[in-house]
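Per your request, structure below.
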């Protein structure tokens, strides 16, 4: 059930959280959808740019995918990320986004929060998200269409892009083709916040 906005925990930026299903529930939903359309884990893994082992771990509730990996898997299954949100975003297409008024979403853990930034107008090409990553956070290796631009708001992160490592501190940026295999890890002593802007439409119009 979605959390009531008035009582929901908030991020450091003041964004109320909306629960996404727990890892096991997401895994059950993904497995049911995969069987419904008759695909194997190997097929889904190949189309999602992930390993078959990781797809198996997601389905068994052992591993939790990042938002972009969930997007890739949803695409491979012919559905959308919205399917796994307790309360899908309302598309107001507001040109202005105020801190403290944005809703935050999470996948299983309350510590990893995604503030999905509303697209300013219908048909917009750019998409944005502020990701809150706890100490020790490490994403899986993934790739997808489009391009990614990252601005590290807070903390210290290690990004691996096509086998090369880049250490970013607050104020640093990174811009690369999303088709290159990439992953990220919080190597700092505290939580990190990252602004992502990209052409990948994670949430449907």
């Amino acid at each position: 059930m979605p959390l009531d906005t008035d009582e929901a925990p908030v991020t450091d930026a003041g964004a109320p959280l909306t629960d996404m299903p727990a890892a096991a529930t997401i895994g059950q939903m993904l497995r049911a959808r995969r069987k419904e359309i008759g695909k194997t884990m190997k097929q889904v893994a190949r189309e999602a740019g992930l390993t078959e082992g990781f797809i198996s771990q997601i389905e068994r509730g052992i591993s939790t995918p990042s938002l972009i990996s969930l997007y890739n898997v949803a695409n491979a299954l012919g559905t959308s990320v919205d399917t796994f949100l307790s309360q899908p975003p309302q598309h107001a297409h507001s040109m202005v986004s105020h801190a403290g008024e944005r809703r935050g979403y999470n996948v299983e853990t309350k510590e990893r929060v995604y503030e999905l930034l509303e697209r300013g107008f219908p048909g917009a090409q750019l998409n944005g998200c502020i990701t809150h990553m706890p100490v020790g956070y490490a994403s899986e290796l993934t790739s997808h269409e489009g391009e990614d631009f990252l601005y590290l708001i807070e903390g210290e992160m290690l990004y691996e892009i096509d086998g090369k490592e880049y250490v970013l501190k607050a104020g640093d940026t990174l811009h690369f083709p999303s088709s290159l295999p990439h992953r990220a890890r919080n190597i700092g002593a505290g939580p990190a916040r990252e602004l992502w802007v990209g052409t990948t439409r994670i949430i449907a119009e």
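Confidence is low (pLDDT under 50) at residues 1-13.

Regards,
D.
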